[in-house]
Design brief:
Elements: E1 2-4, E2 9-12, E3 22-27, E4 37-40, E5 43-46, E6 55-63, E7 66-77, E8 91-93, E9 106-108
Parallel strand pairs: 1-7, 8-9
Antiparallel strand pairs: 2-5, 3-6, 4-5, 6-7
């Protein structure tokens, strides 16, 4: 599963059996996100995902006859702010030998082949 930072991840784990199995959730090589991971009916929800939540999550279903385990991976990607373009009110073309420019000034450089 792949989500953006701040979104929720929902892992489903639908099991059935006689006798009714219990369901436990684990995370490989790490603890569950503190205060943001909650068991929901038929699954696990991780709220407000963060990059450190990435990894492999396991659902283990067990009863006295045995157990079975399934896994799913979580990738959390950063969202980037939208690009903002600032148009400067002054544009200056530089001429050969000119090496000065003001702060926040757009400078257009060009080269021409000598004739």
């Amino acid at each position: 599963m792949s989500i953006l930072v701040g979104e929720s991840a929902i892992f489903n784990c639908d099991v059935d059996g006689i006798p009714t199995p219990s369901i436990d959730w684990y995370r490989q090589d790490a603890q569950m996100p503190k205060d943001r991971a909650e068991r929901i009916v038929g699954g696990l929800k991780i709220r407000d995902a963060r990059p450190e939540d990435e990894g492999l999550y396991f659902c283990q279903s067990s009863n006295e006859l045995g157990s079975v385990r399934a896994s799913a991976s979580l990738s959390v990607h950063c969202k980037f702010p939208p690009f903002e373009f600032l148009i400067k009110s002054f544009e200056r073309r530089m001429v050969p030998g000119d090496t000065s420019a003001r702060t926040n000034q757009i400078v257009v450089l060009s080269s021409k082949n000598p004739d």
